[in-house]
């Protein structure tokens, strides 16, 4: 889905390939690093990376979160045996980290181990992307929270239709760099060219330094545009997109991700509160947000069980599998106080999706779960329009009557989210 | 056409991609709007040119296909719109190509998943050239009475219900394509209808933003009020706030930004749209709605009263006399597509073909009701599969085995027999596989291979008429018919044909009954008394054993006769021997044998000096 964060390890891996290429060999960028995951054999990895045993090392989690120093998750200037112990003690442990946006709890399971690099200067460079231009940010005061020294940051906008070679990069950099100016300008250009060609949408090195005339990134944060994956397969190499820290997926969410990956259709599921009584089974990326909104806007946030959507004309088989996943989750247990649950099969007026056809899969799943739906006291509300919607709604209505499950159906004459208030007004409050 | 208009009732477009259904929907809309000419001038399909058939009302028309935009423009210089259905991989490139032309002014990018940087370049370039892009990741939109993009606004019934065939007073623009249709519905239920409506698409950087379209609507005197539907994520809505502050937008605007639930969800949840993700406080739906409200936009409390706020705003403009009533135009009938009518159970037609052996129209195709995966899993084999397709029965194991046995036995009989010879000669003449084996297969008949059918026929006739073997032979002789399936070049009673032995032994061991074999062997006893080699040969054995097999499977004599008459028995020979023909074909090709020419010394030339003259 468009902008995706990547691991520091992957960012540096790509830099080591791209920077020499985009600077005609003028910039060397060494990435002596290994990524340690939950399945890595710590006793064997040094065989492939002998420098681990001879160099002083730095270790840190590599899971898309920053402020690792402040969270005591940065282990600097240590030997391989020390690093191994440090990682083993933390692998698969749940920790709470504090970020500028607040606290997040998650499981540590990926660590980056690099060569420790003694250095003096610490610079800051970042490239951000915007609609009409990209912006290069540079500061002499790297290695700190950059917002605190924002005055020291100089910026240069590169309009989207321009090439960086048309700009005087050395002239833009602070005078204080003196003799280093030329090489940092080369480095900046190469980084920018990589950002463009590799379809990065964000890149920040805070800090980076120079050792023996070659840049060394002491930290890297990057996001790429995953829409470009087909263009960048070779550049990116074996790139996996990790989930944001603290967002471990449940098996059901992973199952839906898997269904989503398998086809051109879109299937999404985020479980918010498995004990919630309002479950959404909504067609369309836009409509699904509005249904969740409406539940929240009407004051029933605590009852909202999931966010999810299906769209892009999924096959009967897919809607069946997706519906089953949701019905399974919502009927696992009854409400503690015996109150009814609600399934909102919502959606706008489809442009070209055959409503009756997508409902076929949903109906199949409802039939299969009829006993569980009854046991969990589930009420179903349907609202949908588009090709063959009448037939779809009739089929839904009939299956409700036949199975003895309360199913109410509405078409385009009823406001799209009306079924939310119908369900909530009548029943949730009881 | 004014600069702020994208389309008028003469607008014509190219469709990039083989999108017949979308094009038909455009033409149905055109017809409903009583346009003079269809809005689709041509298709651009790089894989090949030609024509597509589409309906204009009840009449079928043809619309040309071109392999390149350049060719299409040459043929239709008046076209200034391209509806680009290219995949996300080629959408940017093809859009860029259209941008570079003089003619194309508006491009709609339908694909979802076009890389952001490509879209940003396209957006900027379009702006510099004064051109318009809608999308990517959108269904498009429409201008009632004038032009509809692809699948926008759904079915013709929906277009009728929401009066999208004639302009109203409202300019609508949303982010979501899926919701745009809902938006038109809400607007039509609460006002005099849509003047123009588009979805800019749910990407992070839609090539044109909500504001771009609102600014167009602002300039258009036909549009009296504007309705918009934004989304959490990005900062485009703040541009609208700024535009209102700068007095660039002065018309009443009813707007709602969806995604107010985002703050209740765990950080980082990505909604269904790529752009729908708040990265900062400013990006949240709440903050945006509040900012819009402060700027004077009419913002509902939730999506629930979106329609009410639209109605209120409309009624107020009407009360102020800014919107006048107009007469509703009449609309022609737009015929329903046959497929749609079938789906709704409104029409029926007799079929021209019947199939009772298989059905490929379901989720998985089946052989006589048995799904193909089950055929494999349950190891039906060649015999079992032929059982389903030829006999329409699940055959017992012995029958399957016997069929396979026969196929193996008849698979080849050397290069000299007529079928193999023909195949080889044809292969050597440089013809392809199918031509070569066809020339072999056409020799199969009563003299070559076809004796199977004949033997079955002859012996069955004898047994049915209770003729003693001797009497049977005499009867046949009297009729001057050679009994088929009797006689061999080499094999004899003392030197039996191993192939026949195998089949006979198999039948004796496994068939519940084999009366015709017994009858044929009794006949053989008589014939071999005359000459040692007049034995039941391979064809004969197969023929009589298939009759016995059918009898064992409880086929009635009548049915068996019918099967013989339709050449059923030869079929086993044909299927088996085709394997041999193919082998000979491949053999010749591998050996690169040259054209065969029959030697003169193998032909007796006995031509008269002069032909007889007929007077």
Describe the structure.
The complex is a heterodimer of chains A (430) and B (615). Chain A folds into three domains: 3-30 and 119-236, 2-Layer Sandwich (D-amino Acid Aminotransferase, Chain A, domain 1); 33-115, D-amino Acid Aminotransferase, Chain A, domain 1 (2-Layer Sandwich); 251-424, 3-Layer(aba) Sandwich (Rossmann fold). In chain A, 35% of the residues lie in helices and 24% in strands. Chain A is built from 14 helices and 19 strands. In chain A, strands 1, 8, 9, 10, 11, 12 and 13 form a seven-stranded antiparallel β-sheet that branches. In chain A, strands 2-7-3-4 form a four-stranded antiparallel β-sheet, with helices on both faces. In chain A, strands 15-17-18-19 form a four-stranded parallel β-sheet, with helices on both faces. Chain B has 615 residues and is an alpha/beta fold. Chain B has helices at residues 20-32, 69-75, 91-99, 116-129, 156-161, 177-190, 210-219, 236-245, 285-295, 306-319, 338-343, 372-377, 381-391, 397-410, 418-428, 433-441, 451-464, 469-478, 498-510, 515-530, 538-552, 557-565, 568-591, and strands at residues 13-16, 40-44, 50-56, 59-66, 81-84, 106-109, 132-134, 141-143, 147-148, 170-174, 194-199, 225-231, 253-258, 358-359, 366-367, 370-371. The termini of chain B are far apart. The model of chain B has no long low-confidence stretch (mean pLDDT 93). Classes of the chains: A alpha+beta (430), B alpha/beta (615).
Lay out the secondary structure.
The complex is a heterodimer of chains A (430) and B (615).
Chain A: E1 3-6, H1 8-22, E2 33-36, H2 45-48, H3 51-54, E3 57-61, E4 75-78, H4 80-90, E5 94-99, E6 102-107, E7 111-115, E8 123-129, E9 133-139, E10 154-159, H5 169-172, H6 181-197, E11 200-211, E12 214-217, E13 221-225, H7 229-236, H8 251-262, E14 266-271, E15 278-280, H9 285-297, E16 306-311, H10 316-330, E17 341-345, H11 355-368, H12 370-375, E18 378-383, H13 389-403, E19 407-410, H14 418-428
Parallel strand pairs in A: 15-17, 17-18, 18-19
Antiparallel strand pairs in A: 1-13, 2-7, 3-4, 3-7, 5-6, 8-9, 8-11, 9-10, 11-12, 11-13, 14-16
Helix pairs in contact in A: 1-6, 8-10, 10-11, 11-13
Chain B: E1 13-16, H1 20-32, E2 40-44, E3 50-56, E4 59-66, H2 69-75, E5 81-84, H3 91-99, E6 106-109, H4 116-129, E7 132-134, E8 141-143, E9 147-148, H5 156-161, E10 170-174, H6 177-190, E11 194-199, H7 210-219, E12 225-231, H8 236-245, E13 253-258, H9 285-295, H10 306-319, H11 338-343, E14 358-359, E15 366-367, E16 370-371, H12 372-377, H13 381-391, H14 397-410, H15 418-428, H16 433-441, H17 451-464, H18 469-478, H19 498-510, H20 515-530, H21 538-552, H22 557-565, H23 568-591
Parallel strand pairs in B: 1-2, 1-5, 2-4, 5-6, 6-7, 10-11, 10-12, 12-13
Antiparallel strand pairs in B: 3-4, 8-9, 8-11, 14-15, 15-16
